[in-house]
Automatic annotation (TrEMBL):
PANTHER family: 4-CARBOXYMUCONOLACTONE DECARBOXYLASE FAMILY PROTEIN (AFU_ORTHOLOGUE AFUA_6G11590), CYTOPLASMIC PROTEIN
All copies of domain Carboxymuconolactone decarboxylase-like, residue ranges: 66-132
GO molecular function: peroxiredoxin activity
Protein source organism: Candidatus Nesterenkonia stercoripullorum
InterPro entries: AhpD-like, CMD-like
Protein name: Carboxymuconolactone decarboxylase family protein
High-level lineage: Bacteria, Bacillati, Actinomycetota, Actinomycetes, Micrococcales
Domain of life, per lineage: Bacteria
Length: 194
């Protein structure tokens, strides 16, 4: 395994978004209503997306399509997503990802220990391999090795590895967008029972 050394700086909670999050109009009203109904609040990435209808609709379409990816077990998907968000330093994605994974039954301690995955004893060898691969795929440029993929192939089939890679790529899109826009956590993790 390669060393997970990362020198990221995570923005502090409460820093200001880099573009305004207030909008008005029929699409804003509909999107806000739906977001509040599903998540209890209007998601800040949705507010950002409302600045560009084409980007918003394309992103929502991709997110909807990704809900049909079901080959990779949910816990491995969650660890991959959280590892990528951690590597990029997106506090919004870490906050929301924890909440979402928690509500899908992923073990909360495994989610909490993603930042220290390298030394944590909680992960199975497969989970550790998934996190290592996700971190390496998130590096710029990616540092994935043949050995990492061979290690994954001991437990995952090719279809699952493709899906794993797609989840990492999707989370890179989310995290890089949200972090670049200055979005930080909205308090989702705090709503989860411990």
């Amino acid at each position: 395994m390669t060393s997970p050394i990362s020198s990221i700086t995570i923005p502090s909670i409460g820093s200001a978004p880099r573009i305004p999050l207030d909008h008005s109009g029929p699409l804003t009203s509909l999107a806000s209503w739906f977001s509040k109904r599903v998540y209890g609040k209007v998601l800040d990435p949705l507010k950002v997306g409302l600045h560009h209808r084409g980007v918003l609709l394309s992103t929502l379409g991709l997110e909807l399509a990704a809900t049909r990816w079901k080959k990779l077990p949910k816990d491995l998907q969650a660890l991959a997503v959280m590892a990528s968000a951690q590597e990029i330093g997106c506090t919004w994605c870490l906050d929301f990802g924890y909440w979402e994974s928690y509500h899908h039954g992923v073990h909360p301690e495994k989610l909490r220990q993603v930042p220290s995955w390298w030394t944590s004893e909680i992960y199975t060898p497969l989970e550790r391999a998934v996190i290592e691969y996700s971190v390496a795929a998130t590096h710029t440029p990616p540092t994935v090795t043949d050995e990492m993929v061979a290690n994954l192939r001991q437990d995952l089939d090719d279809e699952q590895i493709v899906e794993l890679t797609a989840w990492v790529s999707l989370e890179n899109f989310r995290s890089r967008t949200n972090a670049s826009m200055g979005l930080t956590g909205q308090g989702f993790k705090a709503e989860c029972s411990v």
